[in-house]
Amino acid sequence: MTATARGAAPSAGAGSASGAGSAPGPGATPGEEFFGEAWAGGGSAGTSALSRIARAYEHQLLLYRRTWRGSIFNSFFSPTMFLLAMGVGLGTYVDRSGGAATAGVPYLAFIAPGLLAATVMQTASFESTFPVIAGFVWVKRYHAMYASPIGPREIALAQLAWSATRVTVVGAIFVLVTLAFGAVRSPLIVLAIPVATLTGLAFATPIAAFAATQRTMNKFSYLFRFAITPLFLFSGTFFPVEQLPAVIQPIAWLTPLYHGVALCRALALGTVGSDPTGAAIHLAVLLAVSIGGLLAALVTFQRRLAT
Fold this sequence. Notes:
The chain is mostly helical and about 300 residues long. The protein folds into two domains: about 1-45, no CATH class; about 50-305, no CATH class. It is built from 13 helices and no strands.
C-alpha cells in the first residue's frame, strides 16, 4: 500500500513514505531516522511521529471518556475490598500470630504494596488483550488509523502509552486508598506509583505483542487462567516467596510481578535503602521485560497492519 493510497502524499524533499526498508528522506524527523521508514508509516511531511502518536492516543482518551464509569469498580472499589478482606480481615489473624511470616510487619502494611503491583498487572493485562484485538478484528480502528498518515508503530506506541496512563491512574488511586487505611510506613510509597507503572508495562508490552497476532480471543482465557491468576497468587503478593516450596521459588523470581511486588514493598516499607543492589536488580528486570515487550509489539503491529 503506497503512502498516497493511505492519504499521505509525500512532498518534495521528504522522501518516499512507502516501501519497507527504504531510507528516510532529508525531511524525516529524528524519530523516523532512528526507527527507519516503518516508523514513519507513510506519514506526510510536516507531521512528526510524536504528533501522530498523540492523535492516536487522543482517540483512546476520547473512547475512555465514554466508558470511564465502568472502570470505577476496578480502580477504586476493588482495591478497597481487597484491603478490607485480606489486609484488615485476614490480617487480624495473621498479626495475632506475632507477624513471624511478615518479619514483624503488620499484614495490612505487608499486603498493600503487593496488591498495588498485582492490581496494575491485572489492569495492564486487560488493556492489552481485548482492546487490542478489537482494534484489529472487531472494530478495526487500527486499520482506520493506518489508512491515515498514522503508521503501525505509532499505533502500537499510542496503545501502550494509553495502557501506561491507565495503570498509573489505578496505581495512584490504590496508593490513596492505602493511605486512607493507614497502611503506609514510608513517604517513599510515592515512588511506588512509577514502579507500579513499570510493572504494568512489563505485562502490557509483551501481551499486546501477543494479542496483535491473534484473530480470536480464545487464547486469552488460557493467558489469564494459567499465567495472570497464578502470578497474582504466588509472586509474593500475599506471603513471602520464601515460603513457597524450594523448587517453585526460582520460577517466582523469574516473573516480572515478583520484582514489581518486591520493589513496591521495599519502597512502601522504607526498606529499599537496606538492599540497594536488590532494588537495582528488580528495576533492571522490569525495564528489560518492558523494553523487550515494546520491541516485540512494534514488530507484531507492523506485520499485522502492513500485510
